[in-house]
Amino acid sequence: MHQQAMWKPAWLEALSTEKFFVACSFHEHAKKNEKNICCLDCCTSICPHCVSTHRVHRLLQVRRYVYHDVVRLEDLEKLIDCSGVQVICIVYTVCV
């Protein structure tokens, strides 16, 4: 049986291998310099201070949830077909 090779965008590999939530080496002395954005066109992780040099690029914000790097489904749906992705809803309860 011949399996057709599945094409995947280069940024998807970068999203799974890049290091996020580490200090940006270009802005090491700036506040809020954690890399929490993936530049899909450059296939690299960047910090909020780097955004100005990537302003015409496609950017995806990476978030932290229980020690895991995650992205919002609605952000990912703009880029790829997510019909087979299982959604996990997170509900926050605030006790006063």
Explain briefly what this protein structure is.
This is B box-type domain-containing protein. With 96 residues, the protein is of the alpha+beta class.
Blueprint of the fold:
Layout (H helix, E strand, L loop, with lengths): L9 H8 L19 E3 L4 E3 L12 E3 L1 E3 L2 E3 L2 H4 L20
Antiparallel strand pairs: 1-2, 1-3, 4-5
Total number of strands: 5
* Count of runs of 4 or more consecutive helical residues: 2
**Structural class of the secondary elements?**
alpha+beta
Domain module count: 1
**Unreliable spans:** none
Distance between the termini: 60 Å
With strands numbered from the N-terminus, the spatial order across the biggest sheet is 2-1-3
User: Could you report the average pLDDT, rounded to the nearest whole number?
Assistant: 88
Sheet of most strands: 3 strands, antiparallel
Order of helices and strands: HEEEEEH
User: Any idea what the radius of gyration is?
Assistant: 16 Å
How much beta, percentage-wise? 15-25%
Helix content: 10-25%
Q: What does the overall shape look like? A: globular
Explain what this protein looks like in three dimensions.
With 96 residues, the protein is of the alpha+beta class. It has one domain. The chain contains 2 helices and 5 strands; from the N terminus they run H-E-E-E-E-E-H. It is globular. It starts with 9 loop residues before the first helix and ends in a 20-residue tail after the last helix. The model has no long low-confidence stretch (mean pLDDT 88).
List keywords for this structure.
96 residues; alpha+beta; 3-stranded antiparallel β-sheet; two-stranded antiparallel ribbon; 2 helices; 5 strands; globular; PLATZ; B box-type domain-containing protein
